Every structure is written in C-alpha cells, then in structure tokens.
Amino acid sequence: MKVCKFGGTSMASGEQIRKVCSIIASDPERRVVVVSAPGKRFDSDTKVTDLLISCAEKYLVNVDYKPVLDEIIGRFGEIAADLGLGRQIVTDIENNLYTRISLPYDSPEKFMDRMKAAGEDNAARLTACYLRSQGINAQYLNPKDAGLFLSDEYGNARVLPQSFKNLAKIKNMEGIIIFPGFFGYSLSGEVVTFPRGGSDITGSILAAALEVDVYENFTDVDSVFVASPKIVENPKPISELTYREMRELAYAGFSVLHEETLEPVYQRGIPVNIRNTNNPSSPGTMITPARKTNGCPVAGVAGDKGFCSINIHKYMMNREIGFGRKVLQILEEEFVPFEHMPSGIDDISIILRRKYLDDDRKSRIMERIAKELRVDSVSIEYDLALVMVVGEGMNRTVGIMSRITKALAQSGINIRMVNQGSSEVSIMFGISEADVEKAIKCIYEEFFCLA
Ligand code: ASP
Predict the structure, then answer these.
(1) What is the pTM of this model?
(2) Which atom of ligand 1 is nearest to the CA of 8?
(3) 217: part of which helix (H) or strand (E)?
(4) Could you tell me the domains of the chain?
(5) How far does residue 36's CA lie from ligand 1's centre (Å)?
(6) pLDDT tens per residue, range 15-41
(7) Measured in angstroms, how far is the CA atom of residue 137 from the centroid of ligand 1?
(8) How far is the C-alpha of 336 from the C-alpha of 354, rounded, in Å?
(9) How far, in Å, from the CA of 39 to the mean position of ligand 1?
(10) Any residues with Cβ below 6 Å from ligand 1, and which?
(11) Would strands 417-420 and 426-432 be described as parallel, antiparallel, or unpaired?
(12) Average pLDDT over residues 76-97
C-alpha cells in the first residue's frame, strides 16, 4: 500500500488533475491520496491558499472580500468545467466557502485557519468527484471523521499522538481515499492548519499511521538536486538520500519537502519517494533510513538567509556554572527558539532566525542578558546566512573541511562561524547573506564538477 501526496502545481488546473488521476489509476497500491489546494499555473499566478488568506484578511477588517471570493470560486469552477464535472460540484464548493465565512468564530486565528483549509478541502472533494466520473471507486474523507487531531496552535499545529491509531482504520476502508492535506481538527473541534506547505506533513502522518511501503510525494521536479537549480545551472540529481541528509538540506532551504515532513515516517522507517507529476516515469529521489555512499562524501549543499547572532562576551565565562542555561532561559521566557550556539572560552553566540526577533523582544532580551548575566558586552549581528554542506559520507572522512574552506577562500568569502555536529553528517558555515549564492556555487564546483 502507498500513500501519495500531490502538491499545489499538480492540482493547479484540470489538465494537471487529469495527470494526477491517471497516476493514481495506474497503480492499485496507491490507495490513499493527499491533495494540496490548487497552486500556481504559471509564475505570476496566485495560489488558492493565498487567495483564501487574502479573502479572510479582508473579511476580518471589513473590507470588500467578494471579488477575491469570486476569484476562488472561479478557479474551482474552471477546473470543474475543464474536467467535465457539471455545475453541482461548483455549487457545493461555493456553499462550502460561504458557510465557512458565515459561521461564528471567537478569534481571528480560528477564522483564518477555517478559511485557509478550504483550498485543500474542496480540492479533495473535486478530485474524488472526478475519479468517480471516470468509473473509479474513490471517496473524499474528512480529517475529523478520520480522527486527525492536532494541537490548537493555529497556523502552526502539531499532530496529537492519538491520531495515528485513529488513522490506521483507513486501512479497512474501500476504494481510493482522497484526503485533504494541510489541516486537521483540535480536540475542541476547530479546524487547525499546519504551517504553510503542510500538506506534506499530512501525507507523512498518514503514511506512518498506515505503515505503508512507501510515501510518494509528487511535485513538479524530477528529483531533489545536489544544489538549488535556481543557483547552480543543471545541478546533479540525487537518486537516494537518507532522512538525516534530507532533514539537514530542508532545514537550510531545500524547499522540495516541508521541513517537518520526515518526522512521522522517520520514526517508522518508511521511505519517501519524491516524484514528478509531469514526468511520472522518472524514478525520482528515494529518502531512506540508510544508503550506500556513491564515492562522493557530500550529498548536497544548501543555504538559507535571515539569521542573526547575539554575541555575548564575559571574561572567565567558562568557569561560570549555569551561564548557558541562564542565557537560554531568557530566550525561553521570550518564546524565541534558538538554532545554534557556537562558543569560545569567554564567548557564546546564539544564532536565531531573525523572524522571531521583533524590536520589542530584541530590546528586552539584550537588556536582560546585559543586566541579569552581568556580561562584559552583548551585541547583535544581522546579515547572517547559513550554508550547510551535507553528506553521510563525510563521517570520518579526512579533508572535507579543508576542501570547503579552500573553495570559500578562493572565492573571497569570509567565514564568520563554523559548526559541525557530532554525527559529522553536516558542516555549517555562517557567512554574509550577500555571499550565499557564490558560496553554494563554489562548493558545488569543488565536490560535483571536478571528477
Ligand atoms: N496549500 C497550502 C500552502 O500553500 C499547503 C500545501 O500546499 O502544502 O501552503
């Protein structure tokens, strides 16, 4: 049995949904299908989820939301017409959207999540309807009926453990199940969404709950590449990656899979196959618990911008018991997650994602560190990017660091921070944001172009 997930571009038009359905029909093991909301048909297009967000925002501030709502209904209407589905399904979708808007709500976040979920929910109804019109036994399954329960963190939900047992019962259901991605329900019965791009997470949860043989994640690229095709021309494709490698690359900006996707399948060792809806004969990339290394120690290189570093200096810091805990406690109390904490004898730097540090929080944190920890200096440095070089083959291989630093030096790139975990599966470099593309290119050339 396989769980398949189809992303936004695979659901963007009638033509794309026809491809999705022929992929489903071509393999009887594809029994559970997770769909995203219709995404972009072309570069300047708008995703249905973004239209829904804009509609909800307008509604919340009493601005005319009707034109956006009509655009959303129009998108579904066009798809339905293209698939030859008749008016009824479009009327159902229209009613579904109006019901979401008109039902009472007690907080803007709840209303927003209820609206955001409409893209996936109606895409799933429409896909099931099309499959049935083609004589295929398919049914839409609502996440509440299936028992997908999430924490009540609106827009940022996490799966609750009891969901896995509930979802396992889908195994006994007949036909093909079309399951909307991106949302579930809180225990009090409210719609709650995962972070953006979260349909990947739904697919992974289902794959884990059903203990399937493989989780197929269909997108619009043939495979994962060793570096972003936006930065490197024709980068090499990757046929196999481990969970750890994919996780590290996703963390540093590989956007093929949502960063949180792998957690449920990782626990159960279920492989993930990234595949292309537009080229289903391509085998794609397999993400597995372990792999044979193919001679190249590095599996991929990725970079992400938007970090900052709080640099703390205190003479004799190394002798002060509990110093690190006190710094982290201040961050905890301000609800700011930290990413990394490289340190020297008398220095600690805390690397954070800048988006978590608004001006108020920043001032409070800096003041508290200065006062409560009586440090000699504390400053904040913006313009920090992280470049990660990832590969299981780097473990216990001599000379990787020297090859990377030499390549960076030859490109005139200053390294502000280096971090390597004990697993040796990745090395991370802190550099200026302006240098990221250059760094990725030169590391790519070092490991993938010189045979
Ligand atoms: N439709 C949602 C988004 O655009 C979730 C997804 O596509 O995975 O973020």
Answers:
(1) 0.89
(2) 7
(3) strand 214-219
(4) 2-288 (3.40.1160.10), 300-448 (3.30.2130.10)
(5) 6
(6) 999 999 999 999 999 999 999 999 999
(7) 26
(8) 10
(9) 8
(10) 8, 36-37, 47, 49, 119, 181-182, 196-200
(11) antiparallel
(12) 96
